[in-house]
Write a structure and sequence with these properties.
By secondary structure, the chain is of the alpha+beta class. Helix content is 41%, strand content 16%.
C-alpha cells in the first residue's frame, strides 16, 4: 500500500538564527577527533541509544533503512573482536598493503595492534543489510533487495559519529579488512554485511592525536 502523506514539520528560521546555528554546529564538529587512547570508564547506555536513534533517522533508498547497530559491552566479546581484528590487520600490514598506503599510515603511527577494541567501554558495529527475506504473493520465499545500501548506511554512520560527539563522547572509525569475522562473532545473518566498527568512550587522560589540518573551504567547495 502507498504511504499516507502528512504535512511537513518544518520551521523556517530567520537568516541570522540560521547563521548562528550552522556556525555553532560547524565549530562543534570541527573539534571531533578520532582517538586510539580510550579510558575504560563506563558510558551511559542511554547516550549511545539516543545517538543510534538519531543515526537511524537518516535518509535511505526507498526508506528501506538498511542498517543494524550492534552495541557490544561484554568484555569477552570485545576480546574476541580484538583478536579477529588484529589477525586481519596483521595480514594487511605484513602482506596486503601497498607501500604507498603503509607510508601514509606511518604518518599517523598506526600498526596492526588494536588494544582500544578492549579498552573502550562500548563498541558499536554497524551492519549494512543488502537484502531482506520476504514472502511473495504466491507464497514462495524470496529476497527484497536494498537500494543505495552503501550510500544510505554511510550517511547513517556519519550521523552516528556526530551524535556521539555532541554527547561528549570520543570515537574512532575502524575498518579491519576483511570484516567477515564480525558477523561470525556477533551471530549476524548472511544478509547483513559488516560496514564499520566504532569504539566509543571517553579519552584517556593522556590521550594524544596527530597535529593535522583540514582542507580549507576553497579547496573543497566550488561555486558555479
Amino acid at each position: 500500500m502507498p504511504y499516507t502523506f502528512v504535512p511537513l514539520d518544518f520551521e523556517r528560521l530567520p537568516v541570522e538564527e540560521s547563521r548562528t546555528r550552522v556556525r555553532a554546529f560547524r565549530d562543534l564538529v570541527r573539534r571531533r577527533r578520532s582517538i586510539r587512547d580510550f579510558s575504560p570508564d563506563p558510558v551511559p547506555l542511554d547516550l549511545v541509544d539516543a545517538a543510534i536513534e538519531a543515526a537511524a533517522s537518516a535518509p535511505s533508498g526507498a526508506n528501506r533503512q538498511p542498517w543494524r547497530f550492534i552495541v557490544v559491552r561484554d568484555p569477552e566479546t570485545k576480546r574476541r573482536i580484538r583478536e579477529g581484528a588484529e589477525a586481519e590487520e596483521h595480514e594487511f600490514y605484513e602482506r596486503k598493503a601497498p607501500p604507498e598506503w603503509l607510508a601514509d599510515l606511518a604518518l599517523l603511527g598506526t600498526d596492526w595492534r588494536k588494544p582500544f577494541l578492549e579498552t573502550a567501554p562500548v563498541l558499536v558495529v554497524i551492519f549494512a543489510i543488502d537484502w531482506e527475506p520476504e514472502t511473495r504473493p504466491d507464497g514462495t520465499e524470496g529476497r527484497h533487495k536494498g537500494y543505495y545500501v552503501q550510500e544510505s548506511v554511510g550517511i547513517a554512520a556519519g550521523m552516528l559519529l556526530t551524535a556521539l560527539h555532541s554527547a561528549g563522547l570520543a570515537t574512532l572509525t575502524h575498518t579491519p579488512s576483511p570484516m567477515g569475522f564480525l558477523g561470525r562473532i556477533l551471530g549476524r545473518p548472511r544478509n547483513e554485511r559488516p560496514f564499520l566498527l566504532i569504539p566509543v568512550g571517553y579519552p584517556a587522560p593522556d590521550a594524544t592525536v596527530p597535529d593535522i589540518d583540514k582542507k580549507p573551504l576553497d579547496e573543497v567547495r566550488e561555486i558555479r
